[in-house]
């Protein structure tokens, strides 16, 4: 069957805390897939068959009503037990506590149940677009100390992932150590860890797996010292080497490829 994947990008002020809301339904043509980290927290409602999620350094979690994937820096194994039918929220790096209500540090590298999923599932109805809008209306914004400064730091890293964290801290009027501690509390990752994730994420968006890839030039343009450094970071974040990534995704049409998803 066809795989339906729809997204909704919220407007302000929610867009500061929520990157997108998604709806997915269909059967993938492989048993499981690796999903590279994005620096965000993901909250999902299961509308159909259970989905098994396994973090790189944790136990498998079989989600029957919903799940939370905390901020992480290694790939998650996604393994549907049958047809996927789910709907979820991807926060921005600073959005976990603000919209989910949980400290991101407590979720780091973990997959667990989403307490709000069962009630939300009972309330969802209508078309996929209706449900995306319903989820957006349910999301509220809570206050988190340090969010504004961390959001500015995230924006600086998104613009230039290889930039010095100490330089960013100086621009924001705090010490490097203060920014590290505040960032780890609000985002759930250190600034340097998020910078590595953002750099690989940008690399994945640049890659045309069906074309010729100049890995050396890409490494230099995105701030890696050499190709070996790029390969190490790439494998840590995707679970495969660049050549394995390209060979695997070449089996699919361009419209079937989503950056950071590796069929297994």
What's the SSE blueprint?
Layout: E1 4-8, E2 18-26, E3 33-35, E4 42-46, E5 51-54, E6 61-63, E7 66-69, E8 76-80, E9 84-91, H1 96-100, H2 104-107, E10 111-112, H3 117-123, H4 128-138, H5 147-159, H6 165-171, H7 176-187, H8 191-206, H9 215-221, H10 227-238, H11 242-249, E11 261-263
Antiparallel strand pairs: 1-2, 2-9, 3-8, 3-11, 4-7, 4-9, 5-6, 5-8, 7-10
Helix pairs in contact: 5-8
Quick structural gist:
With 264 residues, the protein is an alpha+beta fold. 39% of the residues lie in helices and 19% in strands. It has helices at 96-100, 104-107, 117-123, 128-138, 147-159, 165-171, 176-187, 191-206, 215-221, 227-238, 242-249, and strands spanning 4-8, 18-26, 33-35, 42-46, 51-54, 61-63, 66-69, 76-80, 84-91, 111-112, 261-263.
Care to describe what's here?
With 264 residues, this protein is α+β, with helices and mostly antiparallel strands. The chain has two domains: 4-138, Jelly Rolls (Sandwich), CATH 2.60.120.10; 145-206, Arc Repressor Mutant, subunit A. The protein has eleven helices and eleven strands. It has helices at residues 96-100, 104-107, 117-123, 128-138, 147-159, 165-171, 176-187, 191-206, 215-221, 227-238, 242-249, and strands at 4-8, 18-26, 33-35, 42-46, 51-54, 61-63, 66-69, 76-80, 84-91, 111-112, 261-263. A six-stranded antiparallel β-sheet has the order 1-2-9-4-7-10. The radius of gyration is 18 Å and the shape is globular. The mean pLDDT is 94.
